[in-house]
């Protein structure tokens, strides 16, 4: 697919970099990178809808982007977040990318947003909405509906959904097209902030039979990757902070081979050991499938893949969101950069050796 615009149409641009440091433990391809702007005065020349923001890789190729949330522009400072598909993030050198902004025309330059998420993603629910439907950002289109909507609140990024844990049908049910079944390979990710007590389900899909679901329970002392009639577990100390849980399991593998993570770090799990037989009866956000053990607290960024994401992906995903200021560096912006000859002329830049030569 070809973008309906060219980079020369934009008035300004800026360079970002991701250093090959402890956050990037191995090189990753087609990584969905989060980029945010907080009260950014230089971007006040943008449109009030954020349509005139685009991204390019270090070779000057336009890359897919998805606008997560936006406020400001048209004379006001911008607070916004975007997901962009970076072709390669390197572990052994700095990765550069560019943000272009301020353009005339009505095209939405958050170009090809579903392509930000590679073909192995079968559901990505940002949960930014103020009432349903709750949109899946992938091509699968597994959008969610509710009987009674949860409450939109401030999230770890942008907005999240707050669930009361009562029997009020205040959970989200999504379509299940393409979700992993049987013992197929899979990965699950969810950001959560716990507010209540007891055993609570965050999310998961499947049925009510033996070993037919794949989800996550959380108690005051234990996090339990849950499979219906059995589970794995590891210890944690409950608090109300935001945390990132992930789990991945290879095709045909027993649950003792589960890779589990909390805040990007691997966790050793114990207890039941069997091969899964996951169904796709339902996919629930805010409780266990069939809406048992309703969640009390906030949820955001629920993702399902039909592949085993590597440990390096979970590690960078956590730090990219929880520590975006140290993970991603703004190197310069042509609106404010001044050198020996004055403001940097964006239109004469040349990309050299994986970066922009000033």
List strands and helices in order, with pairings.
Elements: E1 12-18, E2 28-40, E3 53-57, E4 62-63, E5 65-73, E6 76-89, E7 95-101, E8 121-125, E9 144-145, E10 151-154, E11 159-164, E12 172-174, E13 186-194, E14 200-206, E15 213-218, E16 222-226, E17 232-235, E18 242-249, E19 259-262, E20 265-267, E21 270-271, E22 282-285, E23 296-305, H1 311-322, H2 324-327, E24 329-333, E25 338-339, E26 342-343, E27 351-352, E28 355-356
Antiparallel strand pairs: 1-7, 1-24, 2-6, 3-4, 3-7, 5-6, 8-23, 9-12, 10-11, 11-23, 12-22, 13-18, 13-23, 14-15, 14-22, 15-16, 16-17, 17-21, 18-19, 19-20, 25-26, 27-28
Query: How many helical stretches?
Result: 2
CATH topology of the largest domain: Jelly Rolls
Tell me the distance between the termini.
31 Å
Structural class: mainly beta
Q: Oligomerization state of this entry?
A: single chain
Q: Over the alpha carbons, how many angstroms does the gyration radius reach? A: 21 Å
Helical proportion, percent range: under 10%
Shape annotation: globular
Major sheet description? 8 strands, antiparallel
- Give unreliable regions as ranges: 337-358
Mean pLDDT comes to 90
Count the E strands: 28
How many structural domains? Answer: 2
CATH C-level name of the largest domain: Mainly Beta
What is the CATH architecture descriptor of the largest domain?
A: Sandwich
Portion in beta strands? 35-45%
Order of helices and strands: EEEEEEEEEEEEEEEEEEEEEEEHHEEEEE
